[in-house]
């Protein structure tokens, strides 16, 4: 059985590593010590590779697979909660400090919004998400990057492609990722500025443009021609699609307040919908005082 070698540190301190001891057999009467750096590590209550919760136990894992305290049993629920919070708070604090140091040398559009561990669900035959593997997630600029172990610099790496399923240890972890994801979307949309999709409108080829500054507009004919119609993002009241290529956008006229429906067809409908969601999310977040304050604080 494992036990901690020291008392729970005060919550206003930031230890750089966690030490545990493993009691050997009674005859040996010795202790095997292991020290796990908290930088880029994580604490978990789950059995590695599964979604099975260990009752009354936790494990601290480091940045490399061999760094672990092993399973630590804590009988007192209050003590367990205090350990989890203390360890998690220190890991988050160290990670945020590392992000700030890295972001000093990065331009605004390439800043790191999130670094931390997630658990990726692995599809196996007809039983998805039965096994999980730890992945180190980085949201940087317009990229989503995944690593088996944290990179040395955190500045570059392969971008994740295709749909993925991730889980995290706590709701607080999920909220941190959601906030960072929203910040990354806002920065990406502002950097992109606008995006035009080829669509069919009224039986004619056209271009639907999403513009950060002006909203939706549809143009036909030569580039630069006046739009057939244009609406601000705030005028969109709803949308519907057939999941294949057809899309309906419902706008409210600024003067008459009447709902006007525009029907389009797009061969890359899912890409258009994802882009719409990103622009709308960014627009809403950009006028949220609390969100703006958090962005300014992180900068």
TrEMBL record:
One GO cellular component term: cytoplasm
InterPro entries: Syntrophin, Syntrophin_4th
Location (main, coarse): cytoplasm
Domain Syntrophin C-terminal PH residues, every copy: 196-286
Pfam families assigned to the protein according to its UniProt record, in alphabetical order: Syntrophin_4th
Single GO term (MF): structural molecule activity
Annotated localization: Cytoplasm
Keywords: Cytoplasm
Protein name: Gamma-2-syntrophin
The organism of origin for this protein: Eumeta variegata (Bagworm moth)
High-level lineage: Eukaryota, Metazoa, Ecdysozoa, Arthropoda, Hexapoda
